Amino acid sequence: MGRVVARCIKALSFASNRNLGKVNGGFYLAPCARRVAEVRKMRIFLADDHRYVLELTRTLLEPTFDVVGAVEDGEALVETAGNLQPDIIITDISMPKLNGIEAADRLRESGSSSKIVFLTVHADPDFVQAALKTGALAYVSKSRISTDLLLAVGEALNGCTFVSPM
Predict the structure, then answer these.
(1) E strands of the chain, at which residues?
(2) pLDDT tens-digit map of 26-65
(3) Looking at residues 112-126, what average pLDDT do you find?
(4) What residues does CATH 3.40.50.2300 cover in the chain?
């Protein structure tokens, strides 16, 4: 998307320097304007039972992404994410009422197309397997949040799998 915007800016500069594309005293920019309008921040929804983790995660993500909400338990995750339909869901595994793996399964069963990233303290390979079995694309260790989370989200958006080194 960045290249499209750069091309549009170059085209605008070229047109304005040569008085090309003028309509009623303004520039006709429809093709570029349509492309630029399509650029939007990806919508991310968070679920973790620790508020400080939610705040840290939000802080890391918000310059680049639109964090559309956060909840502290698995049942609220299923209900709210089902209504919001975010592009990405970042969830913990150990949460009250319904764990993150069960919540991810329910979301998939309901037809959710949101990409799922697990952010957790669990380093056991059985947890990694169970998380990925739900259809999640990424598994990030909380101890590596500052180095791995943005990378994992980017990989998930591209349909690729990411697992933090354990």
Answers:
(1) 22-23, 26-27, 43-47, 66-71, 88-91, 115-120, 138-141, 162-163
(2) 444 444 444 444 567 899 999 999 999 999 999 999 988 9
(3) 94
(4) 43-163
The architecture CATH gives domain 43-163: 3-Layer(aba) Sandwich (3.40)
For 60-95, the pLDDT digits (tens) are 999 889 999 999 999 999 999 988 999 999 999 999
CA angle (139, 65, 8) in 5-degree steps: 125
Label residue 17 left, alpha or beta by phi (over 0 means left) and psi (-120 to 50 means alpha).
Answer: alpha
CA dist 100 and 107 (Å) reads 10
Q: pTM score, two decimals? A: 0.75
Write down the pLDDT at residue 39: 63
- Spatial distance between the Cα atoms of 160 and 132, rounded to a whole number of angstroms: 12
